Amino acid sequence: MAGIGSSNYWEDLRKQARQLENELDLKLVSFSKLCTSYSSSRDGRRGDTLDTTPLLNNSTQDRMFDTMSVEIEQLLAKLTGVNDKMAEYTNTPGTASLNAALMHTLQRHRDILQDYTHEFHKTKGNFLAIREREDLLGSVRKDIETYKTGSGVNNRRTELFLKEHEHLRKYVHISLASL
Protein backbone atom coordinates (compact mmCIF):
# COMPACT_ATOMS: atom_id res chain seq x y z
CA MET A 1 0.00 0.00 0.00
CA ALA A 2 1.22 3.51 -0.74
CA GLY A 3 2.34 5.89 2.00
CA ILE A 4 -0.12 8.06 3.90
CA GLY A 5 0.90 11.18 1.99
CA SER A 6 0.21 9.90 -1.53
CA SER A 7 -3.00 10.03 -3.55
CA ASN A 8 -2.62 6.30 -4.23
CA TYR A 9 -3.15 5.72 -0.51
CA TRP A 10 -6.45 7.61 -0.69
CA GLU A 11 -7.52 5.64 -3.75
CA ASP A 12 -6.59 2.37 -2.04
CA LEU A 13 -8.71 3.36 0.97
CA ARG A 14 -11.65 4.32 -1.27
CA LYS A 15 -11.33 0.99 -3.09
CA GLN A 16 -11.31 -0.89 0.22
CA ALA A 17 -14.33 1.08 1.41
CA ARG A 18 -16.29 0.36 -1.79
CA GLN A 19 -15.36 -3.32 -1.64
CA LEU A 20 -16.49 -3.59 1.99
CA GLU A 21 -19.68 -1.64 1.22
CA ASN A 22 -20.53 -3.98 -1.65
CA GLU A 23 -19.85 -7.02 0.51
CA LEU A 24 -21.97 -5.57 3.32
CA ASP A 25 -24.79 -4.83 0.91
CA LEU A 26 -24.88 -8.45 -0.26
CA LYS A 27 -24.66 -9.78 3.28
CA LEU A 28 -27.44 -7.50 4.49
CA VAL A 29 -29.74 -8.62 1.65
CA SER A 30 -29.05 -12.27 2.53
CA PHE A 31 -29.48 -11.52 6.23
CA SER A 32 -32.82 -9.85 5.60
CA LYS A 33 -34.00 -12.83 3.50
CA LEU A 34 -32.94 -15.22 6.24
CA CYS A 35 -34.86 -13.27 8.85
CA THR A 36 -37.93 -13.07 6.61
CA SER A 37 -37.84 -16.79 5.83
CA TYR A 38 -37.58 -17.55 9.54
CA SER A 39 -40.77 -15.67 10.31
CA SER A 40 -42.52 -17.08 7.22
CA SER A 41 -41.67 -20.66 8.15
CA ARG A 42 -43.00 -20.05 11.64
CA ASP A 43 -46.17 -18.33 10.35
CA GLY A 44 -46.93 -21.25 8.07
CA ARG A 45 -47.16 -23.58 11.06
CA ARG A 46 -50.10 -21.99 12.79
CA GLY A 47 -52.54 -24.63 11.64
CA ASP A 48 -50.26 -27.56 12.35
CA THR A 49 -50.40 -29.62 15.50
CA LEU A 50 -47.51 -29.88 17.85
CA ASP A 51 -47.38 -33.63 17.32
CA THR A 52 -46.33 -33.20 13.71
CA THR A 53 -44.33 -29.95 13.90
CA PRO A 54 -41.45 -29.47 16.33
CA LEU A 55 -41.43 -26.13 18.11
CA LEU A 56 -37.80 -25.30 17.39
CA ASN A 57 -37.36 -26.59 13.88
CA ASN A 58 -35.35 -23.49 12.97
CA SER A 59 -32.12 -24.34 14.78
CA THR A 60 -30.23 -24.24 11.47
CA GLN A 61 -31.63 -20.80 10.78
CA ASP A 62 -30.70 -19.73 14.30
CA ARG A 63 -27.10 -20.82 13.70
CA MET A 64 -27.06 -19.08 10.31
CA PHE A 65 -28.45 -15.94 11.96
CA ASP A 66 -25.68 -15.99 14.58
CA THR A 67 -22.98 -16.63 11.97
CA MET A 68 -24.20 -13.92 9.63
CA SER A 69 -24.54 -11.46 12.52
CA VAL A 70 -20.90 -11.98 13.46
CA GLU A 71 -19.77 -11.66 9.83
CA ILE A 72 -21.71 -8.44 9.32
CA GLU A 73 -20.42 -6.98 12.59
CA GLN A 74 -16.85 -7.77 11.48
CA LEU A 75 -17.43 -6.11 8.10
CA LEU A 76 -18.91 -3.05 9.81
CA ALA A 77 -15.86 -2.86 12.08
CA LYS A 78 -13.51 -3.10 9.07
CA LEU A 79 -15.43 -0.40 7.23
CA THR A 80 -15.28 1.80 10.32
CA GLY A 81 -11.51 1.31 10.39
CA VAL A 82 -11.18 2.27 6.72
CA ASN A 83 -13.33 5.36 7.29
CA ASP A 84 -11.13 6.31 10.23
CA LYS A 85 -8.02 5.99 8.05
CA MET A 86 -9.70 8.15 5.41
CA ALA A 87 -10.43 10.77 8.07
CA GLU A 88 -6.77 10.70 9.16
CA TYR A 89 -5.70 11.17 5.57
CA THR A 90 -7.87 14.28 5.17
CA ASN A 91 -6.00 15.83 8.13
CA THR A 92 -2.50 15.21 6.75
CA PRO A 93 -0.46 18.18 5.53
CA GLY A 94 -0.57 18.72 1.78
CA THR A 95 -4.20 17.68 1.31
CA ALA A 96 -5.64 21.12 2.00
CA SER A 97 -6.21 21.85 -1.70
CA LEU A 98 -8.18 18.62 -2.11
CA ASN A 99 -9.85 18.80 1.29
CA ALA A 100 -13.38 19.74 0.12
CA ALA A 101 -13.57 16.84 -2.34
CA LEU A 102 -11.98 14.44 0.14
CA MET A 103 -14.36 15.51 2.90
CA HIS A 104 -17.35 15.04 0.60
CA THR A 105 -16.18 11.53 -0.29
CA LEU A 106 -15.46 10.72 3.33
CA GLN A 107 -18.90 11.96 4.39
CA ARG A 108 -20.53 9.80 1.73
CA HIS A 109 -18.71 6.71 3.02
CA ARG A 110 -19.67 7.60 6.60
CA ASP A 111 -23.33 7.93 5.55
CA ILE A 112 -23.23 4.55 3.86
CA LEU A 113 -21.68 3.02 6.99
CA GLN A 114 -24.33 4.62 9.17
CA ASP A 115 -27.13 3.35 6.88
CA TYR A 116 -25.76 -0.19 6.87
CA THR A 117 -25.28 -0.17 10.63
CA HIS A 118 -28.83 1.07 11.15
CA GLU A 119 -30.26 -1.50 8.72
CA PHE A 120 -28.34 -4.32 10.41
CA HIS A 121 -29.48 -3.38 13.91
CA LYS A 122 -33.07 -2.92 12.77
CA THR A 123 -33.17 -6.30 10.98
CA LYS A 124 -31.44 -8.04 13.88
CA GLY A 125 -33.83 -6.47 16.40
CA ASN A 126 -36.87 -7.47 14.36
CA PHE A 127 -35.58 -11.02 14.04
CA LEU A 128 -34.93 -11.33 17.77
CA ALA A 129 -38.41 -9.96 18.53
CA ILE A 130 -40.00 -12.49 16.14
CA ARG A 131 -37.97 -15.33 17.62
CA GLU A 132 -38.88 -14.34 21.18
CA ARG A 133 -42.57 -14.02 20.25
CA GLU A 134 -42.57 -17.40 18.54
CA ASP A 135 -40.80 -19.02 21.48
CA LEU A 136 -43.42 -17.61 23.84
CA LEU A 137 -46.29 -18.63 21.57
CA GLY A 138 -44.74 -22.05 21.11
CA SER A 139 -44.56 -22.46 24.86
CA VAL A 140 -48.22 -21.49 25.23
CA ARG A 141 -49.19 -23.87 22.40
CA LYS A 142 -47.29 -26.65 24.09
CA ASP A 143 -48.98 -25.94 27.42
CA ILE A 144 -52.40 -25.95 25.75
CA GLU A 145 -51.68 -29.21 23.95
CA THR A 146 -50.38 -30.77 27.15
CA TYR A 147 -53.51 -29.64 28.97
CA LYS A 148 -55.73 -31.07 26.23
CA THR A 149 -54.00 -34.44 26.18
CA GLY A 150 -53.84 -34.49 29.96
CA SER A 151 -57.54 -33.65 30.18
CA GLY A 152 -58.33 -36.49 27.84
CA VAL A 153 -56.59 -38.93 30.13
CA ASN A 154 -58.29 -37.43 33.18
CA ASN A 155 -61.68 -37.57 31.47
CA ARG A 156 -61.13 -41.24 30.68
CA ARG A 157 -60.13 -41.94 34.28
CA THR A 158 -63.13 -40.03 35.56
CA GLU A 159 -65.36 -42.01 33.22
CA LEU A 160 -63.93 -45.31 34.51
CA PHE A 161 -64.36 -44.21 38.12
CA LEU A 162 -67.96 -43.21 37.44
CA LYS A 163 -68.68 -46.60 35.82
CA GLU A 164 -67.10 -48.39 38.76
CA HIS A 165 -69.06 -46.24 41.20
CA GLU A 166 -72.29 -47.01 39.31
CA HIS A 167 -71.55 -50.74 39.41
CA LEU A 168 -70.82 -50.59 43.14
CA ARG A 169 -73.97 -48.56 43.77
CA LYS A 170 -76.07 -51.08 41.84
CA TYR A 171 -74.36 -53.94 43.70
CA VAL A 172 -75.00 -52.29 47.06
CA HIS A 173 -78.58 -51.50 46.02
CA ILE A 174 -79.15 -55.11 44.95
CA SER A 175 -77.49 -56.42 48.10
CA LEU A 176 -79.63 -54.21 50.32
CA ALA A 177 -82.77 -55.11 48.41
CA SER A 178 -82.14 -58.79 48.96
CA LEU A 179 -81.96 -58.34 52.71
UniProtKB/TrEMBL annotation:
Keyword Phosphoprotein found: no
Subcellular location: Golgi apparatus membrane
Keywords for the protein's UniProt record, in alphabetical order: Golgi apparatus, Membrane, Protein transport, Receptor, Transmembrane, Transmembrane helix, Transport
Entries under InterPro entries matching the protein: Golgi_SNAP_su1 (IPR023601)
Coiled coil: none
Keyword Protein transport in record: yes
Bilayer topology: Single-pass type IV membrane protein
PANTHER family per UniProt: GOLGI SNAP RECEPTOR COMPLEX MEMBER 1, GOS-28 SNARE- RELATED
Family designation: Belongs to the GOSR1 family.
Protein role: Involved in transport from the ER to the Golgi apparatus as well as in intra-Golgi transport. It belongs to a super-family of proteins called t-SNAREs or soluble NSF (N-ethylmaleimide-sensitive factor) attachment protein receptor. May play a protective role against hydrogen peroxide induced cytotoxicity under glutathione depleted conditions in neuronal cells by regulating the intracellular ROS levels via inhibition of p38 MAPK (MAPK11, MAPK12, MAPK13 and MAPK14). Participates in docking and fusion stage of ER to cis-Golgi transport.
Name the record gives this protein: Golgi SNAP receptor complex member 1
